[in-house]
From TrEMBL, chain A:
Compartments in which it is found: Cytoplasm
Gene Ontology molecular functions: GTP binding
Residue ranges constituting the Septin-type G domain according to the UniProt record: 26-298
Principal location class: cytoplasm
UniProt-listed PROSITE patterns: G_SEPTIN (PS51719)
Family: Belongs to the TRAFAC class TrmE-Era-EngA-EngB-Septin-like GTPase superfamily. Septin GTPase family.
CDD domains: CDC_Septin
Record protein name field: Neuronal-specific septin-3
Keyword rRNA processing attributed: no
Name of a matching Pfam family: Septin
GO cellular component, one term: cytoplasm
InterPro entries in UniProt: G_SEPTIN_dom, P-loop_NTPase, Septin, Septin3
TrEMBL record, chain B:
Protein's name according to its UniProt entry: Septin
Family of the protein in this entry: Belongs to the TRAFAC class TrmE-Era-EngA-EngB-Septin-like GTPase superfamily. Septin GTPase family.
GO (cellular component) term, any one: cytoplasm
One Pfam family per UniProt: Septin
Residue ranges of every copy of the Septin-type G domain listed in the record: 39-312
Record has Ribosomal protein as a keyword: no
Molecular function as annotated in GO: GTP binding
Transmembrane feature ranges: none
One record GO biological process: cell division
InterPro entries: G_SEPTIN_dom, P-loop_NTPase, Septin
UniProt cross-references to SUPFAM superfamilies, sorted A to Z: P-loop containing nucleoside triphosphate hydrolases (SSF52540)
Amino acid sequence: MWGSTLLGYVGIDTIIEQMRKKTMKTGFDFNIMVVGQSGLGKSTLVNTLFKSQVSRRSSGWSRDDKIPKTVEIKSVSHVIEEGGVKMKLTVIDTPGFGDQINNENCWEPISKYINEQYEKFLKEEVNIARKKRIPDTRVHCCLYFISPTGHSLRQLDVEFMKHLGRAVNIIPVIAKADTLTPEEKTEFKQRVRKELEVCGIEFYPQKEFDEDMEDKSDNDKIREAMPFAVVGSDKEYQVNGKRVLGRKTAWGIVEVENPNHCEFSLLRDFLIRSHLQDLKEVTHNIHYETYRAKRLNDNGGLHPISSSSDTQESNL
Amino acid sequence: MTTNTRYKNRPVKAEDGEEKEYVGFATLPNQVHRKSVKKGFDFTLMVAGESGLGKSTLVNSLFLTDLHKDRKLLNAEERIHQTVEITKHTVDIEEKGVKLKLTIVDTPGFGDAVNNTECWKPITDYIDQQFEQYFRDESGLNRKNIQDNRVHCCLYFIPPFGHGLRPVDVEFMKALQDKVNVVPLISKADCLTPTEIRKMKDRVREEIEKFGIKVYQFPDCDSDEDEEFKQQDRELKESTPFAVIGSNTVVEARGQRVRGRLYPWGIVEVENQSHCDFVKLRNMLIRTHMHDLKDITCDVHYENYRAQCIQQMTSKLTQDNRVESPIPILQLSTPDVETEKLIKMKDEELRRMQEMLQKMQQQMHEQDL
């Protein structure tokens, strides 16, 4: 039994309600980055996830555009609201990744961007007159889109995840999964998981950050099912009297939210309904701290933080 | 009867018009046909594209064989140091008495690395090597059993996941357009909706024109073909590049057993024309244009190579100031010692004859004076 027994009802449990009210008033930020070769359905998936046009779908490179020679970072923010809760969602796109003939080091601009956000936050944090709520532009989650070849990971995939796995939460997804039959999907996922293990790549949720047994068993189940094979769509069709999001082909309609067709709903539930907050916490408590420690060790250019640093309030 | 004997000996006179005799050379095509059937045909098909685009599956579907039964797929770690390889599989197929020696040239490793600069070089080198070998054989002394390993057609697989051609696609096709018949295909077309396929085809066609890529063009059909054939031909041309699907498995669809892919939301039938262009590709490749592909390889690509080669050689010869011999003697190393000796002997003979000629000419000249 924890602590002393209460002799009557005090009302401590109402703090949850108070926190909830406060969160609803202040709203919160979520920054999601999408990385993958052009045409893998990144923007469509994000729009499907958040059920709004938060990401502009590129129709490819028009006549006058050229594929950018280096990877660009484009971030777009929208405020979406649901059930009285406001969320400022920022989608960070990375056009040009993996599209060139020579893709060496194409992850560098992405790595640089992620570190720049940590740096921005750090600078605010060490300020003498700090803002009450530091604007959080740090990347909370990076969705990495794997091309559904059915064979195994491509070299570029391994290189990217190796370089960035320690700096940001990477969630690999198998894109355009409607090109794989159920057997092919299972085989492919197994092979991908094995390869990630062999290369020492830890994707979110990372095993080492499981806090307790309950977390571990929940996350184990999720880790076994990852990477999720997803299909995105912003078009609705009539199936069995219901309107569903899907893709219509000559041989049937792929229903995005049907768990027998693809794992989109698993991804959505995982990303938004259960682990959204955890993604932010891991980013803040672990990845950001790693960056901060490294910075403070590398050069004493920053003011030393006061000794009350172990009671860090989460800026959420 | 007597009229018959008269007809037999009468010579043909073109001016006679209606009384022109039946000679019988109209059977020539049949004779050629019979001889070729006896000899058999050969066809070399190259498949190129990144791994995982369904190349092997498509080849198996096209020729209803299983060429890659025991293939081992490499994982990402193993593939780090792999360069583009060229692998060949030959299979003898026979159908209704006609024999086909089919060679499939595969290009594993193409486009899979992080840095794919010039990843097509091993492929262009291979094609050139086949041309060179044929050139050597053709110019050699024993031409009875020349083996034709020249690549007749290259199927290039474009991933359906992009928005059209990528830089690597453009560079590859440009590097190969003058060496082989390039047929671009949109692979794994079952992940695209009909609208997306149309858009993709339009984009690819636009970009092919924009970048000036010379892909294989179907020859125009003769004006005396019937309307149905012409209509088919038009449809064929308008649906390029073909959007294809392949399958190694047989599934049950609409009460029949067909080659297809079984999804939870439906069954894709490979040979259903409303599902993909597989049938069009197969017809084009095997049933109607196989011979044309071979012809263009021989008449255009090979001749280009040969002309280039000879030009290089003759410019080298004149540079060295050697006697130009009437027979193009190759500078390339001949592995056969016997033939080399023969060539040397002939060389000597020629020289002696030329000397004799010169002496005779001089004598005649002196006599005249």
